[in-house]
Amino acid sequence: MLIIFGARAVHLHTELKENLTCPSCESKGFIEINIYRKHAHVFWIPLFPFFKSGYAQCQKCNYDFDLDDGGLPDPYEIEYDNVRANAKGPKWQFAGLTLILGLIAYANYASSETEALEKLYIESPEIGDIYEYKPELEDGYSTMKVVNVKKDSVFVNLNLYITNKISGIYEIEKSENYSNDIYSFSKEEIEFMHEENQIIAIERN
Ligand SMILES: [Zn+2]
Question: Lower CB count within 10 Å: N or C terminus of the chain?
Fold first, then answer.
């Protein structure tokens, strides 16, 4: 995939400084300080901004020079700092970063919701619950289906098929794939298997 990544500079702010003298034509009061801020973008979506940069331009003779190269006369250093502090960058330069942080926060929220729900399913099993699990002696994933629940016990049918990828579970999770043999577990055993990540997910319709 082609990822189009780049940087773009946005003009933030300009101030005319009465006290600065042009190094070229030596006129006073014609120097404008211009502040820019670059941001990184991917597919033209701004991700996050970099530091601010600036240049000075004489409005009389048009001479201009970079303010980030160092070695500036003191009055320029001071005014550059002032103008840079006055230059507020637009929030949209953070759009991509904000979006990414938002997605991470949402993913965290969604996974903690799923966790809470699964805890509830494990603590109060219902007929029809599907446990996705890792069979102890086989390398892969399979399912068991809850067919009965008594006070302290859960009764299941085992899926006769195993898939080597977790994403393949939906292909084997069919009613005709289950054996009619009934196995029982105590609720404690089921909770333990969930804690040990042997039962990796619970589906309930
Ligand atoms: Zn000048």
Answer: N
Asked if 162 and 140 touch (Cβ cutoff 8 Å), the reply is: yes
Lookup: tokens for 105: 């926060």
Q: Considering the domain boundaries, does residue 49 fall inside one?
A: yes
Q: Give the C-alpha separation, 93 to 49, whole Å.
A: 6
How far apart CA 100 and CA 195 sit, in angstroms, is 31
* pLDDT at site 43: 85
Q: Is residue 107 part of a domain?
A: no
Give the residue numbers spanning the domain of 190: 124-203
pLDDT in tens, 130-172: 999 999 887 899 999 999 999 999 999 999 999 999 899 999 9
Question: Measured in angstroms, how far is the CA atom of residue 59 from the centroid of ligand 1?
Answer: 7
Cα-to-centroid distance, 27 and ligand 1 (Å): 6
In the chain, how many domains are there? 2
Whether the model pTM is above 0.85 = no
158 Cα–ligand 1 center, Å:
86
Same domain for 71 and 16: yes
Q: How many residues does the chain have?
A: 205
